[in-house]
C-alpha cells in the first residue's frame, strides 16, 4: 500500500511539474518588462481584473507597436487563422480537410484582392494610419520572434510566419465575405423560381414584405456653403468548417438626450457573430497625447471597429445589403473559353494558383473568370447541382481596393460628426450600419456601402443572364443617397439588420434583411419613456422575447384543434399563454421549435430535397418567411408532391404535432410539465482544435444554458432541427452600454474572455457573466485604472 501511495504521489508530482513547465513556457506575460526594438519612448500597460490592457504611450507609433505585441500574445493563433482564411492558406497549416475553404476563397478572389490592395497601399505616400499600422505589425512580429507562443503551435508542430500588411487585407476580405448570405441564398431562390414557380414563391419572403419593419431615414439639414450637419435639436456547408467565426447580424441603438435621465446620449451595441473560442473582439484602451480611445479590435487589425473616446462612440451592425449578383454565362459552342455577350463572344481569363497543403503535395487549381467575375460552379455545390452553365460571381468588394485601415483610423480619431461621415464612405464593402453618438448630443446612423444601381427589371436574388448587358448594374449611387438618419425627431436611431426605408432617390434597396422583429421591440421600448439610464436599458439588451412566435403557434393550434394535443394539456396551455419569451424554466419554446421544424419539413422537404431544405434553414429566407408559410391556408407548400392525395395545412401540421409530442415524450419523459427549455439548450464556444477529441475538453468553452431564441433582442440563435437539442451557434460578441454623462462608467462583457491562450486566467473568466446577463466596466479613468490594476507591464526601448 505504501508503494502504491508513493507511486501515485510521484505521478501526481510529475504531472503537476509538467503542467507548470507547460504553463510557464506558453503563458502570456502580464507584468515585468519587455524590450521592443525600434521603440522611441517607454510604454506602460496596466491590466485590469479581466485582462484588458490599458496602454499609455508618448506617441502613436509606440502605442500601436505595444498594441501589436499584446494583441499577438493573447490572440496570435486566432490572428493566424483569420489571415490564413483570407489569404487562402488554411490547408498549409491545418491540412487537406480544409482545402475546400482555400479553393473557395481563392476562386472568389479575396487573396488576389488582398494583393491588389497591398500594391495600392505601397504606392501611397506616408500617412498617420500607415505609420501606426506598420508599428502594429512590428509589435506582432516581435512577439512571433521572441514571445511565448501558445500551445496550439506545439501541438501542430509549427510556428506562425511573420505578419504583413497583405495579411491585414486578407483579414479585411474575410470580414467582407463573412456575411455570405448571397452564396447560400441565391442558388436556392433560383432553384425555387425555376423548378417550382410563382405558386411557391408567393409564400416566401424573397423580398421585404409590407408587414416587415423598416428603418426610417432622416436625411439631415446641411449648411448650404460648407455641407456640414446643422445641429438643431429635434423634439421627441463547407463554410461550417471555418475555424473562425462569421459575422451574422447585430443590434445597435443610440438614444438622444431628450429621452435619457442624464440629458446625455445613451449608446448601446451588441454585434452578433458566430460563437467561437476565443471570441472575436479583443479589447484595448489606448492613450497618448491627443488621443484616448477604448476599442474592440478584430484579430489582426490595429484599429477598433467598435469603440469610444470621451467625445464620441462608434458601433456597427451588418447592413445586409445585396452586393453580390450571379450571372449565368453561355459558352461559345465553338470555343469553350469564350462566353456570349450581346451579339458576340468575349474571352474568359484563366489563371492557376498553387495551394500548399500540410503533409501533402501542393494542389493546383484553375480559376476561370468571365467579364462578370470568377466562375463559382466548382466551389459551390448548390450552383453545380442547379446548372451546367458557368455561373460568375459579381461582387462589389473585389471591384476596388480596400481602404479599411484608413477608414478605421479616421473613425477612431474623429473629433466631430462630420469627421465620421467623411470616413464612412471609405468602406465600400461589406455593408455596415455605422452607429454614432457624441458628447454634443448628436446621434446618427449611416448605412455604409457602395450601392449599385440595378435595372428596374432585375431580381438580384435570381441568377441573371450573363449574355444580356441590360441585366448589369448601371452605375453607383452617391453616398449622400445611402440610407441614414441623423438627429431624427423620434429621439433615437436603431438598426437590427432590417430593411432601410425608401431612399431619397426613391430606391427600396434589395438585401438579405431580417424582418425587423428585433428593431420593432427596440423601437417600441425606447419610445415608451424619456428617462433611460445605463441600468434600465440593460433589461432591453437582455430581452428574449419575440412577438411573432406565439402568433405562429396559435395558427398551428387553430389548424389542428386543441384535442390534437390529447393528454399533453400542459404543452397546449403553455403555447396558448406564450408571450414569446424564452425563459429557461418554461416549456413553450421546447414544444414550439420542434413542432415548427416538423411542420416546415413536412411542407418543404419533398419539393426542395433534404440538402436544400437544410440550406433553407440557414438563410434569412427562413426567418423572414416562417410567418407567411405557417399562417397561410392555401399555400402550394402544404401539399406533399410525393403522394397521390392533396394534403392540407391541417394534415401537415397535425402529422408534425403527433411526431413532436411522441419525440418529446421519448426525449424528456411523458410528463409534459417537465419539458423545460433549459433541458434542450446547449452552449459551447468551439476552438479550432476543439473539433478533434479529446482536445474539445481542453480548448472549447461550455457554459450554463442561455435563453436561446430566434430573433429576440438578445439574439441567441441555433439551427432548427428535428433532434430537439438546440446548440446556440452565435450571439452577441459583446454587449456595450455607454452613457455620455459618465463615460468612465461604461460597461460591456465578452462571451468567454479576453485571451485566447489556454493558460491565461482570462481565457474564459467572463463566460458565466455573459451567460447570466452580467456586465463589467470599460475603464478609462487613469487614476482608477492604476488603483485597480491587477498587474502592469513596461515596454522598454532597446
Automatic annotation (TrEMBL):
Record GO terms (molecular function): hydrolase activity, acting on carbon-nitrogen (but not peptide) bonds, in linear amides; metal ion binding
Cofactor note: Binds 1 Ca(2+) ion per dimer.
Gene3D superfamilies: 1.10.1400.10, 2.30.120.10, Glutamine Phosphoribosylpyrophosphate, subunit 1, domain 1, Penicillin Amidohydrolase, domain 1
Active site: 250 (nucleophile)
Cofactor(s) this protein requires: Ca(2+)
Residues annotated to bind Ca(2+): 322, 325
Superkingdom of the source species: Bacteria
Membrane-traversing stretches: none
Keyword terms, alphabetized: Calcium, Hydrolase, Metal-binding, Zymogen
Gene Ontology process terms (BP): antibiotic biosynthetic process
Pfam families: Penicil_amidase
Similarity comment text for this entry: Belongs to the peptidase S45 family.
Protein name stated in the entry: Penicillin amidase
Organism: Mongoliitalea lutea
Amino acid at each position: 500500500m505504501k508503494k502504491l501511495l508513493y507511486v501515485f504521489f510521484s505521478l501526481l508530482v510529475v504531472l503537476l511539474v509538467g503542467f507548470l513547465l507547460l504553463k510557464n513556457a506558453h503563458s502570456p506575460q502580464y507584468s515585468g518588462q519587455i524590450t521592443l526594438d525600434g521603440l522611441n519612448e517607454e510604454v506602460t500597460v496596466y491590466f485590469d481584473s479581466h485582462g484588458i490592457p490599458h496602454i499609455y504611450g508618448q506617441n502613436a507609433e509606440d502605442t500601436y507597436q505595444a498594441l501589436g505585441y499584446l494583441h499577438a500574445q493573447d490572440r496570435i493563433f486566432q490572428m493566424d487563422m483569420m489571415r490564413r482564411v483570407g489569404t487562402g492558406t488554411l490547408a498549409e497549416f491545418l491540412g487537406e480537410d480544409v482545402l475546400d475553404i482555400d479553393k473557395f476563397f481563392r476562386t472568389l478572389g479575396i487573396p488576389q484582392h488582398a494583393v491588389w490592395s497591398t500594391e495600392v497601399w505601397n504606392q501611397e505616400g506616408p500617412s498617420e494610419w500607415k505609420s501606426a499600422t506598420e508599428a502594429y505589425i512590428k509589435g506582432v512580429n516581435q512577439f512571433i520572434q521572441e514571445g511565448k507562443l501558445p500551445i496550439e503551435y506545439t501541438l501542430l508542430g509549427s510556428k506562425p510566419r511573420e505578419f504583413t500588411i497583405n495579411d491585414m487585407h486578407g483579414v479585411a476580405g474575410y470580414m467582407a465575405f463573412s456575411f455570405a448570405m448571397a452564396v447560400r441564398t441565391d442558388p436556392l431562390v433560383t432553384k425555387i423560381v425555376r423548378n417550382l414557380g410563382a405558386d411557391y414563391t408567393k409564400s416566401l419572403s424573397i423580398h421585404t414584405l409590407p408587414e416587415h419593419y423598416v428603418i426610417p431615414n432622416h436625411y439631415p439639414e446641411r449648411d448650404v456653403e460648407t455641407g456640414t450637419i446643422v445641429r438643431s435639436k429635434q423634439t421627441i456547408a463547407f463554410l461550417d468548417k471555418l475555424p473562425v467565426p462569421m459575422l451574422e447580424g447585430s443590434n445597435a441603438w443610440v438614444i438622444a438626450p431628450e429621452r435619457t435621465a442624464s440629458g446625455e446620449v445613451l449608446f448601446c451595441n451588441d454585434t452578433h457573430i458566430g460563437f467561437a473560442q476565443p471570441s472575436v473582439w479583443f479589447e484595448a484602451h489606448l492613450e497618448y497625447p491627443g488621443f484616448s480611445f477604448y476599442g474592440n479590435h478584430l484579430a489582426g487589425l490595429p484599429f477598433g471597429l467598435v469603440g469610444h473616446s470621451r467625445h464620441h462612440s462608434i458601433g456597427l451592425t451588418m447592413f445586409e445589403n445585396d452586393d453580390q449578383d450571379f450571372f449565368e454565362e453561355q459558352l461559345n459552342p465553338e470555343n469553350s473559353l469564350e462566353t456570349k455577350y450581346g451579339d458576340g463572344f468575349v474571352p474568359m481569363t484563366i489563371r492557376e494558383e498553387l495551394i500548399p497543403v500540410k503533409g501533402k503535395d501542393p494542389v493546383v487549381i484553375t480559376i476561370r473568370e468571365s467579364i462578370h467575375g470568377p466562375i463559382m460552379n466548382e466551389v459551390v455545390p448548390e450552383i453545380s447541382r442547379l446548372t451546367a452553365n458557368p455561373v460568375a460571381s459579381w461582387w462589389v468588394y473585389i471591384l476596388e481596393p480596400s481602404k479599411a485601415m484608413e477608414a478605421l483610423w479616421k473613425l477612431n480619431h474623429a473629433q466631430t460628426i462630420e469627421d465620421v461621415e467623411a470616413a464612412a464612405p471609405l468602406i465600400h464593402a461589406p455593408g455596415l450600419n455605422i452607429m454614432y453618438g457624441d458628447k454634443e448630443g448628436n446621434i446618427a446612423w449611416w448605412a455604409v456601402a457602395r450601392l449599385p444601381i440595378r435595372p428596374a427589371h432585375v431580381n438580384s436574388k435570381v441568377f441573371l443572364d450573363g449574355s444580356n448587358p441590360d441585366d448589369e448594374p448601371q452605375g453607383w449611387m452617391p453616398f449622400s443617397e445611402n440610407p441614414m438618419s441623423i438627429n431624427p425627431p423620434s429621439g433615437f436611431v436603431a438598426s437590427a439588420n432590417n430593411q432601410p426605408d425608401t431612399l431619397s432617390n426613391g430606391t427600396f434597396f434589395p438585401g438579405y434583411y431580417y424582418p425587423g422583429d428585433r428593431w420593432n421591440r427596440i423601437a417600441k421600448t425606447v419610445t415608451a419613456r424619456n428617462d433611460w439610464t445605463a441600468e434600465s436599458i440593460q433589461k432591453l439588451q437582455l430581452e428574449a422575447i419575440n412577438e411573432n412566435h406565439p402568433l405562429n403557434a396559435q395558427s398551428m393550434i387553430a389548424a389542428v384543434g386543441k384535442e390534437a394535443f390529447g393528454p399533453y394539456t400542459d404543452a397546449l396551455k403553455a403555447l396558448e399563454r406564450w408571450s414569446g419569451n424564452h425563459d429557461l424554466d418554461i416549456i413553450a419554446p421546447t414544444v414550439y421549435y420542434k413542432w415548427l421544424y416538423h411542420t416546415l419539413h413536412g411542407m418543404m422537404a419533398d419539393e426542395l430535397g433534404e440538402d436544400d431544405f437544410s440550406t433553407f434553414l440557414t438563410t434569412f429566407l427562413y426567418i423572414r418567411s416562417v410567418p407567411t408559410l405557417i399562417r397561410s391556408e392555401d399555400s402550394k407548400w402544404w401539399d406533399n408532391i410525393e403522394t397521390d392525395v392533396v394534403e392540407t395545412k391541417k394534415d401537415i401540421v397535425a402529422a408534425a404535432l403527433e411526431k413532436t409530442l411522441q419525440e418529446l415524450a421519448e426525449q424528456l419523459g411523458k410528463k409534459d410539465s417537465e419539458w423545460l427549455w433549459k433541458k434542450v439548450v446547449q452552449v459551447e464556444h468551439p476552438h479550432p482544435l476543439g473539433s478533434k477529441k479529446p482536445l474539445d475538453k481542453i480548448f472549447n468553452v461550455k457554459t450554463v444554458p442561455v435563453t436561446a431564441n430566434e430573433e429576440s433582442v438578445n439574439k441567441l440563435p441555433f439551427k432548427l432541427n428535428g433532434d430537439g437539442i438546440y446548440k446556440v451557434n452565435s450571439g452577441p460578441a459583446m454587449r456595450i452600454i455607454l452613457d455620455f454623462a459618465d463615460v468612465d462608467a461604461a460597461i460591456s462583457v465578452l462571451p468567454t474572455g479576453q485571451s485566447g491562450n489556454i493558460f491565461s486566467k482570462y481565457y474564459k473568466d467572463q463566460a458565466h457573466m455573459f451567460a447570466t446577463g452580467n456586465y463589467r466596466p470599460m475603464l478609462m479613468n487613469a487614476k482608477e485604472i492604476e488603483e485597480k490594476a491587477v498587474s502592469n507591464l513596461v515596454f522598454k526601448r532597446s
